[in-house]
Amino acid sequence: MQGHRADSTRRSSAPLPPVTAGGKPAGLHATTGSPMTPDPAPRIARGPADLAGQDALLAMSGLEFMRAMLAGHIPLPAMCGTLGYRLHAVDEGEATFRGTPEFAYTNPMGTVHGGWYGTLLDSALGCAVMTRVPQGAFYTTLEFKVNLLRALPLGAEVEVRATCRHAGRSTAVAEGAITGVADGRLYATGSTTCIILRP
Q: Which CATH number fits domain 85-197: 3.10.129.10, 3.10.170.10, 2.120.10.30, 3.90.79.10?
């Protein structure tokens, strides 16, 4: 989920996400303000027209953008459907995804391809940074690193949680980990450096 500057030839604007009756942005609990879990059948982009335009992106802070995505007002990218993972929770400086490795994501040896680990980590790391991006700016990934600690069991849901450790005017860094939802085991860790850009 890197390079969150939408092509200006796409839809130039999209409605800002609604708020609850208590004044909290949709996707947050109206009383506590805590992130809510997403719809079990998340909205996924099916074509370029489904993506938020540049004007809509720049009109929101990164945290507002991520909360709108969690609430389903902005669709998840198409690769979430292709690779079987989804946004699970967001808060300032944090993003969590969940996914289930299937046989379709295995390498010739029958184990989960490292690219699947990397995709989930890159998504969570970048989205954690996005929650710290101010209105009028966007980000892109400069580099990221993944450490694969053990093989993922097929069919077992995992969670990847990332935290933005630093967000300055032009750079941000984040770190995260993949753990099993049921077994709590650590399967991989990752880190990223991102560039914060302004048009």
A: 3.10.129.10
